[in-house]
Structures are given as structure tokens and as C-alpha cells.
Amino acid sequence: MLQPLLRYIGPVANSKGILSTDTSPNGAFAEYLVIDPALVFTLPDDVPFEIGAQLGVSCYAACQALYQTLHLPTPLDPATEPIDILIWAGSSSSGHYAMQFANLSGLRVVSTASQRNFDLVRSLGAVEVFDYADSRTPKKIHTATGGKLTYAVDCISDGMTPAQVSNCLSKDGGTIVTLLPYESRKKGIKTELIVVYSMWGEVSDFCHA
Ligand SMILES: NC(=O)c1ccc[n+]([C@@H]2O[C@H](COP(=O)([O-])OP(=O)(O)OC[C@H]3O[C@@H](n4cnc5c(N)ncnc54)[C@H](OP(=O)(O)O)[C@@H]3O)[C@@H](O)[C@H]2O)c1
After folding, report:
1. pLDDT of amino acid 207
2. Whose CA is nearest to atom 24 of ligand 1?
3. Where are the alpha helices (DSSP H) in 66-155?
4. Residue 136 Cα to ligand 1 middle (Å)
5. Looking at the structure, do residues 61 and 42 belong to the same domain, yes or no?
6. Residue 4 and residue 63 in one domain
7. Which of 20, 28, 193, 195 is the most exposed place for a label (fewest CB within 10 A)?
8. What is the DSSP string of 27-89?
């Protein structure tokens, strides 16, 4: 049960279920919102709503990928030795958050983007950025990480990226967190689908294709 007068933030669900595509009156401009208490948390007094409002799905997805799924060090207890991680699509919304959290966690971030976004992606914490449209990029990332990359977050998880991201990882295997469901065709590569609405322990039937 939520406490009255406290300020809460979280993803807004509609009245027919979180993942329903039906139009619903339970939107951000409603006077009252109906939401599962498991999906919200209190906004600290010193954080304005304007900041809280942008902590949406992408932010939670990044946390779920790095900490709940890959069990990497958190910003509260960062890695003392750099650990390489590939954040595929650093210029995506999820990629922005994943790179910044990874950086705060002491990880060494390698990423991809269009060339026009290289500077942006570097400014958010990537030490190296590669063009995702370049067919040589997986090999370049494999080389840039000494053939030892074992962690990746695929912030697109569609089209060519299952093969591209798989080919970046070590020949000894690794784990790709995916934002949409897929299995890697490469031997030894495990994929873990995250569904942000399950972050607080809620079970969802989301798109098991
Ligand atoms: N499972 C979950 O809980 C969850 C959570 C969040 C999002 N998602 C899903 O994740 C996907 C991404 O969402 P988002 O909002 O983070 O993305 P977004 O912000 O819409 O990403 C757009 C950017 O991705 C880059 N991009 C496009 N294709 C790419 C490719 N093949 N390789 C690398 N980068 C590419 C482009 O960057 P450039 O401009 O540099 O070309 C584009 O500007 C969506 O399908 C979304 O539904 C799932």
C-alpha cells in the first residue's frame, strides 16, 4: 500500500495491463493514476519531479541489464579492475543510461553508433565507439577487447544485431542481455532477455517468441 503525501515515480501502466496496446485513460495527464505499487518508488525530497519524470523505462532497463542480470559491480561498489562491456547502440535511449551506469560502475565501455553520434557516445562514457553500419565492426570490437569480451547489452536486439553482437564476444563464450527476445547462433553465447516491468519481481508474459 502506498503512503499518501509521499512522491512516487515509476512507469505508467494502463488500466488493461502494462503491456496492452489498447488506448486507456490511465495516462500521464490523468488526475489520478492506477499503478501497481511494485512498479514505483519514492522520489527523494531533493529530486524534483522534472528529473524523476525522465527516469523511465530506459533507465530501469539499463539497471536491470547490468545489475540484476549480469550481476556487475554497482556504482556504490565499483569494479577495482576494469571489466570490458559492449553496449551496442550507445546512441539509443537505453544505451545512454547503460553506458553512464557502466561507467560509474568502473566498467570499460565499448559502444556503437552512427558516426555523427560518436562524440555524444564518448561523452557518455564509451572509451571506444564503432559504426554499427560498418560490416567490420564486430571484428574490430573483438580485437579492441583482446578477444576476451564476455559481457554485452544489445540495446536494439533486432535485424543484424544478434549476429553482430555475438561476433564481438570471446570465442570462449559470454552473455548478451537482449531487450527483445532472441537466441544467439554462436556456440557458448548465452542470451538473457530483460523485461523492465519485471524488475521489481512482477512476472510478465511479455513476448516469448
Ligand atoms: N525489454 C525491455 O524492457 C525494453 C526496455 C527498453 C527498450 N526496449 C526496446 O529496446 C529497443 C530500443 O529502445 P530505445 O528506446 O532504447 O531505442 P531508441 O532510443 O529508439 O534508439 C534509437 C537509436 O538507436 C540507434 N540504432 C538504430 N539501429 C541500430 C543498430 N542496428 N545498431 C546500433 N544502433 C542502432 C540509432 O542511433 P544513431 O542515431 O546513432 O544511428 C537510433 O538513433 C526498442 O525495441 C524498445 O522497445 C525494451
Report:
1. 45
2. 92
3. 93-104, 118-123, 137-144
4. 21
5. no
6. no
7. 28
8. STTSSS----GGG-EEPPTTS-HHHHTT--HHHHHHHIIIIIIS-PPPTTS--SS-EEEEEE-
Domain count, the chain: 2
Q: How far is the CA of 116 from the centre of ligand 1 (A)?
A: 16
Q: Which three cell numbers stand for residue 170?
A: 570471446
Write down the residue that cell numbers 551496442 correspond to: 88
Structural domain contains residue 40? yes
Which residues have any ligand 1 atom within 6 Å of their CB?
57-58, 61, 88-89, 91-94, 112-114, 117, 132, 155-156, 159, 161, 179-180, 194-196
Ligand 1 centroid distance, CA of 1 (Å): 34
Residues 116, 65, single domain; the answer is yes
Tell me the whole-structure pTM to 2 decimals: 0.89
Three cell numbers written together for 70: 549480469
Taking CA atoms only, the protein residue closest to ligand 1 atom 15 is 93
Note whether 124 and 184 are same-domain residues: yes
Report the separation in Å between the CA atom of 74 and the middle of ligand 1, taken as the mean of its atom positions.
23
- Smallest CA separation from ligand 1 atom 18, residue: 92
CATH of residue 189's domain is: 3.40.50.720
Domain check: are 79 and 172 in the same one?
Answer: yes
Indicate the range of 16-20, 100-104, 109-113, 139-143 predicted with least confidence: 16-20
> In the listed set 55, 78, 98, which residue is the last one of a domain according to the structure?
55
Per residue in 132-147, pLDDT tens? 999 999 999 999 999 9
